[in-house]
Amino acid sequence: MKKTFICLSVLFLLTACNKKSTDKTEIKETEIHQEVTFDRFEEAPVINDISRVPFIVYPKDSKIKLYVQPNEKADFIEQELTKTETLFGDTEVSNFYKIIYQVDQNPQNSKYAYVLRSDVDKDNELLLSENDHLNEIRYININGRVQNNVKSFDGYGSVSLIDKLEYNQVFQKNSHILLKTNNKPVLQNDIFSFRLRDGSLKEIPRVTNEEGLYELEYIGFSEELDRHFFKTTLDKAFLYYKSFSTINNEIEEVIFQDLPTYSKNTHLVAYFSNDEVGSLLVLKKYNPQDYSFKEIYAINFTNFKVSSSKNLVWENEKTLVAEIHHPNTKTTSKDYKKQYIRIKFLDL
């Protein structure tokens, strides 16, 4: 009986000591993590050009653990993030991303940190769903009248996701080549020139400084629209397209933010371009009698961006399909996630 009592007493003491030791360890670890400051993190270079950043990651929660080393047992700071903060990706290290974090959103106080890949989404992995309100717009311009108070496309049509197979079927069935390159203008002494139907000669300088330096690059000729198309960059940054009529010099040039897609049945041209918010869809009505264009719709969608108007196709007289991606995706990544939508208009 005495031996039993002694054994029980020893067991109790061991258990109590072990618990006390564990509690101390937990308290010690907690204290260590609480005392971690950004002085413990390696300094990182200031980011001056975001386009050179390999990738960006987006936290799945409002808080994220920033580790000092790529190890789940390493010290970390659990940081509350604001919507304006950006986590700039540097490299992938095992199950971590090495990132550059700007402390207090100050680029001069940039630090290297490590985040678990399971805690974030890499920009090229972002996907849209119907819950992302694809019909949300910043404004709509109808026949030249801007309506800033309209925030949904629902009153004018619908936007829905479709799968790649369905998109490809529409593309193969309805896509046609708008531009041909067998009727090129002559380029001599930095001047493009071509003969108009009325017999006069049209001359267009390849380089100009009239409204800022830009250079013209010939793209092709559209028989349906009777126009030559040129690609231009303003100050090597802003890309757009100029089109010149082949009828006479009285017909003005028309500018498109991207190459349009054309519906022969309705004489409607459409093109998509991206802006700082999302994407801009523009529809113009072409009049083959006087060769003029009239803008009937300009819709600024806010929750998706587009790859190119080359992937915009008329499915029927009131419907377009397009290739899109998440607005936070960096399209410089070759393997970014592409998605597809159908845009139906109630009336055109």
General description of the model:
With 348 residues, this protein is mainly beta. The protein has two helices and 26 strands. The strands form six sheets. A six-stranded antiparallel β-sheet has the order 9-8-22-21-20-19, with no helix packed on it. The longest helix has 34 residues, at 2-35. The chain is elongated.
Overall 3D form: elongated
Mean pLDDT: 88
Strand content: 35-45%
N/C terminus separation = 97 Å
What strand line-up does the widest sheet have? Answer: 9-8-22-21-20-19
Question: What's the helix-strand series?
Answer: HEEEEEEEEEEHEEEEEEEEEEEEEEEE
If you compute it from the alpha carbons, what radius of gyration comes out, rounded to the nearest whole angstrom? 30 Å
Features:
26 strands; 348 residues; six-stranded antiparallel β-sheet; 42% strand; disordered N terminus; mainly beta
